[in-house]
Give the backbone structure.
Amino acid sequence: MSSPLRLLSAAGALMIACWIAPSRAQDTSDHDSKPAAAQLRVSLKYALQAGARSSPELGPGRAAERAAQRTRRQSRQFLSSNPRLELAAGPRLGTERGLDASIGVWQDIPLVGVGASRQRFADARALAARFALSGVRLESALGAGLAWVDARVARELLQIRQLSVESAKRLARVTQSRLAAGAATAGDAALARSILGAAKAGVLDAEGQRFSADVELAYMLGADAERSLDVVGRLDVDGPALSEAEAFASLTRAPQLRRLSAEARAARAAASQAKAEGAPQLSLGPSLTREGTGDWIVLGRVSLPLPLVNPRQLEAAEHQRAATVALAEYQRLERRLRREVHLLLHERVHARRTRDALARDAVAPAEVAQREALARYSSGKSTIQEVNAARLNLLDAKERWLLAAADARATELKLLAITGRLPGVEFAARSKRQTKARRHDR
């Protein structure tokens, strides 16, 4: 290539490079300038409140509640049926010929309160939807709380197993020193490496559990699954004291029971509405007729069907059946909730005692035993098997304590939820009208 062409090529390449470099730098700077999502700090209180407010599980319940409110508004209509317009026309035959024509307007007036029965049904249905949403909100908050417990367990488990790796590393270092001094065998060194490898595998397993727990917790909070979570708080914290009498008294305000009570009331209101819709209706209206002779006739019309049957009786009976089933479900659920409260009260005491016993009588002595075993092994007074047995005993004691603490915390949350003391979703005090309605339902 000639020298001028070489110079031109070099100049072109330089111009292209100068044009591309700023654009790439701009792209890089734009990419780097995007702020990363801040780590979400999740305490138990935050988890409960976010679960009750933002969980995806609330979607269907909120949609049902909004639809029930629209139905309630639509039930407030002035007329229960449309007026009717009648037109008639035809030739007059005979001695006098001409065209007869008439027009009439009729309105059906129910003899039973159709509009009132519709409003009662819509009100009961809206109340049932509201209680159903309260129940879903309670379940979502509890689900978020239990997911928080699992996330905390995963973190504590990861920390326990990381400490186990550190103890395995210390054992491996001591074994290598003893091997170099001729006080340990190659088999001891291989066993130390195996112990360390197994400990590292346990850390990997704990990391997987943490990832799964964080994904579940993010879902229950309504957060992005890829967002980093900082789950904080202690597992070994006891909630407020709660007697058996207080727990049972709280069940009367449980959203599940109030929903079934409202469902029974709505079914009875639907039965009343069906009967009212099928009841006789009085038809009133004027009519105007022009005869072929030129005469005008003005009449008032009254029509009343004979009340021999109610065509909506079958539908009313079906609604009444649904009301009877809802009442039976109420009674069954009430007994089931009492049984569950009784079990949770017992499990709470048992889980707390197990947790405290493990901390006092298992974890603390196991820590002393492991230190003693490693010291004896370092001085040649014990074997590597004895040290590993002490290490595994400590690991088992810590993990059992962790599970007992999680069980105590989860049982506490379930008891608080079923008795209406879960922070952020406490049961509201029952009004006098609701108390009267509940007594009427039962």
Remarks:
- The first strand starts at residue 40 and ends at 42.
